[in-house]
Design a protein that fits this description.
Number of strands of chain A: 10
Order of helices and strands of chain B: HHHHHHHHHHHHHHHH
Shape of chain B: globular
Structural class of chain A: alpha/beta
Number of strands of chain B: 0
Largest sheet of chain B: none
Largest interface: A-B, 35 and 36 residues
Distance between the termini of chain A: 59 Å
Oligomer: heterodimer
Helix content of chain A: 25-40%
Number of helices of chain B: 16
Radius of gyration of chain A: 19 Å
């Protein structure tokens, strides 16, 4: 369902993503992990047509990302890094916009909107302008927008960040449910315990290159141990002034 | 005082940086055209711009700081009260009023002028104290536009309501409409001139249609399965609706023609060089040359429609269609200014 072959993105002299190659099967939940600045969001942007790759190729839902960016948009749902919301539209209006633009019948849009608002705990804020919503509400709104058109592939950048525990568990259940129904989920996250529970495939990147790619069923030790072996922590200062007599 | 001084300095710094955004008026079409062509006759327009600017300038300077940050600062009750009393003096109109009082002492301005400016200041200050959620609540009543792009047009309509250009145009159109109702004789040419002036007040906004969307809006536009021309058409629809509504009591057909011309010129700078705009400020136009060309096009379209009838709408609509097609392709390009 997702295929990357030597995908590369350079910004001037800086190589953000370097010869990235991996495959994701239909109905998989693929967790794309790595430290900040590893190239996760850049890869996501290339796979969703937001950013043209410098070289290499990628196909999503059988479509070449660079050759068919418009057709691709009809088959994917995206939770972008910056959420992509309009400050002057309310939560509910964002969902109506999505239904209208994807050509859903009005009744379907209303029905799906009601279900998503209820499931994500957004009902009380449905008439709040996105510009006035909390970060958690904004994230849920963008998530609902990604799911509403019933896409074949969901790309989610940090979907669990800023969500309360109940919403986080609801989302986990939703993702597992829709993956079982054949929707492919490609997500980035830093919450390893959660990823270990829901992901069927793990891809770890560091410095723009893949350093680990495996199905979770084949993991022989806890994901956290594996991750810390793969990703070296930065040198730590002791910050001894913290807790010392105050000045 | 030791803790109050850095707090005051932070408020002053935040306000002085914010005041820089008022500079957008210097590149606003309406301001430039008024200064260049109307000269002394433009005094009324400058007065109107001054009154409109007075409101955002009078906003409570303390509002520039996040309330959570302000609450966390280690200031005691007395220091907080002092901060409250001192910060209104960071608003420029407070000093303007002081200056006017000085002039009033020497009878160079009347007490009435001082009282009017003071009243505007107090009103602007008090309005700024109303929570943003309540002030913005009125925007909820903007109806959705028909069609699949209705919500996008509604979004843009609301964005227009958050620019000072709209209020300048509204004041011009409304004052002319009221005068038309009460004046015993109202020349048709005056109605046309006021309609054109209202359109010119809106024209800079047509040059930066994506200015209030920000990076989030750009991302969403690129994710939606919509061709660029349709995204532009949604924005153009909202602009035209505002233009026609404002010119309806004066010269609606000329207003429509002028609106079409404004957009035909405005779409290209909007997509090729999207300039970020600030809410509750005048829109900053593109280059002076383009602004003058746009002004000429708006005026010509409005006057010709008035002279020769609705037939002139046809070339205006064709020009807009051509600009939609061309600028839509720019939006669709993977290397457009909207790409991450």
């Amino acid at each position: 369902m997702i295929s990357c072959r030597q995908l590369t993105k350079r910004f001037g002299d800086f190589t953000a993503v370097d010869n990235l190659s991996f495959e994701v099967e239909e109905g998989a939940i693929c967790a794309f992990l790595g430290p900040n600045g590893a190239g996760k969001s850049t890869t996501l942007k290339m796979l969703t047509g937001l950013l043209p790759p410098t070289s290499g190729a990628a196909t999503v839902a059988g479509l070449d990302v660079a050759a068919h960016p418009f057709e691709l948009k009809k088959h994917i749902g995206v939770l972008p890094e910056n959420l992509g919301l309009f400050d002057d539209l309310t939560v509910e209006e964002h969902l109506r916009l999505t239904g209208d633009v994807y050509g859903l019948p009005h009744a379907d849009t209303l029905h799906r909107t009601a279900e998503l608002l209820s499931t994500l705990g957004l009902e009380h804020g449905r008439n709040t302008f996105a510009g006035r919503c909390s970060h958690g509400m904004r994230k849920k709104t963008a998530l609902a927008m990604a799911m509403l058109p019933n896409p074949r592939v969901l790309f989610l950048d940090e979907p669990f960040e800023a969500l309360d525990p109940v919403s986080s568990r609801n989302l986990r259940d939703i993702l597992e449910g829709i993956a079982a129904r054949g929707i492919t989920v490609f997500l980035t996250s830093h919450i390893l315990a959660l990823i270990e529970r829901i992901a069927t495939q793990i891809v770890v990147v560091r410095g723009g290159t893949v350093v680990f790619s495996e199905f979770t069923s084949a993991l022989e030790r806890p994901l956290e141990d594996l991750y810390f072996d793969l990703i070296e922590p930065p040198p730590m200062e002791k910050l001894e002034w913290l807790g010392s007599p105050r000045r | 005082m030791a803790r109050l001084t850095p707090a005051l300095r932070a408020v002053a710094l935040a306000n002085s940086r914010d005041r820089g955004s008022f500079g957008s008026i210097a590149t606003n079409n309406f301001f430039l055209v008024t200064a260049l062509f109307l000269q002394k006759a433009g005094a009324f327009v400058f007065l109107l711009l001054g009154v409109i600017l007075l409101f955002p300038l009078s906003a409570d300077p303390l509002k520039k700081l996040p309330p959570e940050r302000l609450a966390l600062w280690p200031l005691n009750g007395r220091q907080r009260r002092l901060l409250r009393l001192m910060t209104p003096w960071l608003a420029p109109p407070a000093w303007i009023i002081l200056g006017l009082i000085g002039f009033a002492v020497y009878r160079t301005v009347t007490i009435g002028v001082v009282a009017t400016v003071a009243a505007f200041f107090v009103l602007g200050f008090l309005v700024s104290l109303i929570p943003d959620t309540r002030r913005q609540g009125i925007f909820r009543y903007v109806p959705a536009f028909p069609g699949s792009l209705g919500q996008l047009s509604r979004n843009h309509f609301r964005q227009m309501l958050a620019t000072l250009d709209f209020y300048a145009a509204l004041l011009l159109a409304a004052s002319a409409a009221i005068y038309r109702l009460i004046a015993p004789r109202f020349e048709h040419e005056i109605a046309l001139a006021m309609a054109v002036l209202s359109l010119l007040a809106l024209s800079s906004h047509a040059l930066c249609l994506f200015g209030l969307d920000g990076p989030q809006g750009f991302t969403r536009y690129r994710l939606l399965p919509l061709h660029g021309w349709r995204i532009l058409a949604a924005k153009n629809g909202a602009f035209l609706a505002v233009a026609v509504l404002l010119t309806l009591p004066l010269a609606p057909l000329s207003g429509l023609a002028g609106g079409l011309a404004a957009l035909a010129f405005g779409n290209f700078p909007s997509v090729s060089e999207p300039r970020e705009q600030v809410r509750w400020r005048f829109s900053s136009g593109a280059s002076i040359g383009l602004g003058l060309l746009q002004t000429f096009a708006i005026t010509s379209a409005a006057v010709l429609t008035d002279r020769f009838g609705p037939l002139i709408l046809l070339p205006c609509a064709m020009a807009l269609a051509a600009s939609l097609w061309y600028c839509g392709r720019i939006l669709d390009s993977p290397l457009s200014a909207f790409a991450d």
